[in-house]
Amino acid sequence: MTACGLDFGTSNTTLGLHGAGEPRLAALEGAADTLPSAIFFPRQGEPLVGRAAMAAYVEGQQGRLMRSLKSVLGTSLIDETTPVGRQRLGFRAVIGKFLAEVKARGEAAAGGELREVVLGRPVHFVDGDVAGDARAQEVLGSIARDIGFAELSFQFEPIAASLDYERQVTGEELALIADIGGGTSDFSIVRIARSHAGRADRASDILANEGVRVGGTDFDRQLSLAMVMPALGHGSPLKRKGLSMPVGIYQDLATWSSINRLYDGRTARTIRELEREAAHPDLVARLARAVEDERGHGLALDVEAAKIRVAEAGETVLDLAVLEAGLSVGIAHADLVRHTGLLAERIAGRIASCLATAGLAAGDIDALFLTGGSTRLAHVRAAIGACVPTARVIEGDTFGSVGTGLAIEAGRRYG
User: Fold this and answer.
1) What domain range is 107 assigned to?
2) pTM > 0.85: yes or no
3) Are 18 and 3 in contact (CB under 8 A)?
4) What is the distance of C-alpha 319 from the center of its chain?
5) pLDDT tens digits, residue range 24-61?
6) Which residues pair with 16 in a beta bridge?
7) DSSP-assigned letter for residue 147
8) In a domain, 255, yes or no
9) Does 86 fall in a domain?
């Protein structure tokens, strides 16, 4: 029997296996050990997950794409239903279908049934709501049991990442683990030592945990609202003096979990009415096309890809020809920093609290271990690094450190 660690992420999911030998990440889509947390329900046939789900949507297949599934945990949406083809499914069932497929693919890689799992969880599913946080964990655990896990437990995601990092060290050190993912940013201060790795109880080595519900999808949203949505009329005036286009429509269009609520027919009619009242109807016509043609998820994917290109190359051009021939928006790194800088500051602001809880000064931290996709953003890295300026910066496996660490923990708990 093989124990496993499941890192169900807002943007990507991994599954770590711990049988004989070293922990390893299961191949979940072809040779890839990461699976985008996306599911596509076609009009006919079985749902698709991961890259196949997003490809089906981009290729224009008729159906429903859902992404950032983890973001509904801890919200009232988890108890609601959503239209999928000719039926309505609860969000619990949607998450269950996705995770059941992850489990099945993990079992294919392991060569046997997976019955024991350590589930990764953010330090806070929900900011400032202890009851909501506990509820989110309970729901995730319930879904895991429903899909066939007989034994399960939880571990904080940054603690899991620290277990992966610990395999690299030779001495003892204090490490700040920064896991900046798609939906949350989490920090742990951990005493790291190879000699401690086999201990059954590591509680004394965990000095502090902190987190905030800010992640990569929030950066996408802010970038979309600031740089893309104005081309669709966001912030533009109506003919009646003192009135402008309603903000809510644009906020929903820029937010993964809210895009589908625009496709109800009523919203399209409202936008066409606003187009007649708009001072710049040509801009609002683009918004109407985005909603009527159900281009919202495609726009969100394009904004995310543009953010990554800006992070890597410093600038990019976002092609919006699907809404109007020749339409595009240029985005530079300065734009990304200007419109998402406050998010980076909010993330880094949790480090001071983490240090205070541990009773440490910034100079006491020996190493800063970075994992999670949003650590690729230079201004996020800079904001975090400035909080512990003397620490060595260690690059973890961007998407795999948490899953690997959860596998290590699964081996310890269930091996």
Assistant:
1) 3-170+397-414
2) yes
3) yes
4) 24
5) 999 999 999 999 999 999 988 899 999 999 999 888 89
6) 5, 25
7) T
8) no
9) yes
